[in-house]
Amino acid sequence: MTEFIASRLSSIRIRDLVDILIVAVLVYNLIKILRGTRAEQLSKGIILILVLTQISESLELYTINWILSHLITLGMVAILIVFQPELRRGLEFIGRSSSFRKGMGLGAKRTNALATEITSAVGSLSRQKIGALIVIERQTGLSEIADTGTALDSFISSGLLINIFIPNTPLHDGAVIIRGDRIVAAACFLPLTDNRNLAKDLGTRHRAAIGVSERSDSLSIIVSEETGAISTAENGKISRHIDLTTLEYILDQVYEPKVQPLENLMDKIGGTDHEGKD
């Protein structure tokens, strides 16, 4: 037995190990993409059908096997339709992962000024308990979302951001899209997340912030209308009750990453406290 195992192990080549490693990484990332979405339950159903097909073939249950085999054939078309959002999300994830994260090339002085302006605006909105949603574009373009709102193309300033979100003004309802050092548009509509595992107290504003972060590599900043609490969303994950010092640090990392990856920081500061439904 020992000799048999040794002979098998000796036949394994380096390329075989690399092949196994690549498959493992792909499966792991696929599970990460599907986790927490409706596709997770659908995937379990597909796996069950495949298992039943093999069992029916082994037991020579020809009628059941014929039905299940044709169901799988027809199901391939249905999968492309039903899984369309998840497939798009997965392809975008692969595209973002294939490139290195880099800054926006604005220079340290300009970066610090932008982070200060945005942080100042968010701090003021938080103290006044004015709801706000700011989305900062990175590598994935948000032009389609920006087109749903009102074009501004203005330089970033705390005063302008505050005025946009003042209640009962034309642009206060919706999200602000920021690209580089400019406010591209306001009153934009964002896609809501399909994640059903989120806290029940998260309202539409927070779910929209998570939704756009699932479909892009953007950073969303949310101010709660009920409590004034500040949250951020990135890569489909929300971190709640962020203080202004941490927010300014996050913004510095978005514009000019130099200390540590933003994901590491988000893992450290991710909160679980509750806030209002807005």
UniProtKB/TrEMBL annotation:
Which coarse location class applies to the principal site listed for this UniProt protein? Answer: membrane
UniProt keywords, alphabetically: ATP-binding, Cell membrane, Membrane, Nucleotide-binding, Nucleotidyltransferase, Transferase, Transmembrane, Transmembrane helix
One GO biological-process annotation of the entry reads:
cAMP biosynthetic process
Q: Offer a single GO CC term for the protein.
A: plasma membrane
Q: Kindly indicate whether the keyword Nucleotidyltransferase belongs to this entry.
A: yes
Q: Which InterPro entries match?
A: C-di-AMP_synthase (IPR014046), CdaA (IPR034701), CdaA_N (IPR045585), DisA (IPR050338), DNA_integrity_DisA_N_sf (IPR036888), DNA_integrity_scan_DisA_N (IPR003390)
**EC number(s) stated in the UniProt entry for this protein:** 2.7.7.85
**Pfam families (alphabetical):** CdaA_N (PF19293), DAC (PF02457)
The membrane-topology field of this record reads:
Single-pass membrane protein
Q: Where are the transmembrane segments?
A: 65-83
- Please give one Gene Ontology molecular function term for this protein: adenylate cyclase activity
Localization recorded for this chain is: Cell membrane
Name the enzyme group at the top EC level. Answer: transferase
Fetch the Gene3D superfamilies from UniProt: DNA integrity scanning protein, DisA, N-terminal domain
User: Where would I find the DAC domain in this sequence?
Assistant: 84-246
- Catalytic activity, reaction form: 2 ATP = 3',3'-c-di-AMP + 2 diphosphate
Family, similarity comment:
Belongs to the adenylate cyclase family. DacA/CdaA subfamily.
* NCBIfam families, per database record: diadenylate cyclase CdaA (TIGR00159)
According to the record's subunit comment, the protein's assembly and interactions are: Probably a homodimer.
Protein function: Catalyzes the condensation of 2 ATP molecules into cyclic di-AMP (c-di-AMP), a second messenger used to regulate differing processes in different bacteria.
- The identity of this protein, by name, is Diadenylate cyclase
Source taxonomy lineage?
Answer: Bacteria, Bacillati, Bacillota, Tissierellia, Tissierellales
